[in-house]
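Subject: sequence -> structure tokens, single chain

Hey, anyone have a minute? Need the predicted structure for the following. Not urgent.
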Amino acid sequence: MHHGCSDPIIGGSFNVVFDRASRAQVSDRRRSLVGFAISALALRASGAAFSDPITGQRTFAASAFRDSVGMCVHLENRQTPYYSNFEKVIQLLKDIGITHLRDDAIVASYVDREYDFYKKIRVLVGLGFRFDLVAHDPLNEYVFTPPKKLQEIYDWCDHGIEIFEGANEPNLARNPARNPAISADHQRSIYATVKNSPSLKGVVVASPSYIQKSVPIAENLADAVDWINLHPYPGMEHPETKGSGDLSRFVADAERTFGKSRCWFQRPVIIPRSRLRTDTFPCPKPSRLGTCRGCCCGISSVE
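Reply:
Had a minute. Here:
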């Protein structure tokens, strides 16, 4: 996923049912404004699951899984409502009921605690939202997050960060002799920085999201991640270039690099105006339940 965000995986397809008590039940008018994508649903879902006797699909009430779903936001992008209509975005997020948000960690010589991006994060943290911030490696042409800045960033966010994520889809194949080591060194430094800091050690460290030709040449990082961060594009990505989207193949492939950690899928599915649902896709065996978490893609416009 390109600067986007994760999901719960179940043995079968996954339906979302709104209950009256859930704040995730938004009006038709709200839905028409949201235009975001849920990238896979996270299995930390609690509460009862109901099985359709005909299709075998497992169904959860929205209130049972909404805490396991996150959304990608772009608070720094001036071409989006996150910048131009921030107050409205806050109201939409409240209506949807999603409180886990993903964005890039912004670092520059002119950026400090009072930078507008971090002011917005603190506003959201004060309202109960929590963040996953992407810490980009030196292979990124536009933004780099030095691991030594993580403590400062955490403080700028009023300790509202629950995940520091490795680089977003770094291109290891561009220079296979150097790039895998550069990316791996950055990830190990992120992990060491977080786990050696008394105030950060409770923060989850997610892996880089390797895709396509980067997957088979990545260095082993099993000792530098808490969660595996996967961006499976079924029918497009290694190892599923012609497949139907069986996520178990993506999991098995990633485990060769990251070991057997909790999986975090970031795969967009569209939320239609009429209802919120995921599409149907094959999933890992039920024995994998409880190992996955999920997140969303973003608000495209507001009125």
